[in-house]
Amino acid sequence: SVVSPKAVGRPISMLVLVSLERERVDIVDRFKASIRSTAEVMIGFYVTGDADFVLLITAKSMEDYEQFTRRFFYENHDIKGFKTLVVMDRVKASFALPIEV
Question: pLDDT digit string (tens) for 74-91?
Answer without folding.
Answer: 999 999 999 999 999 999
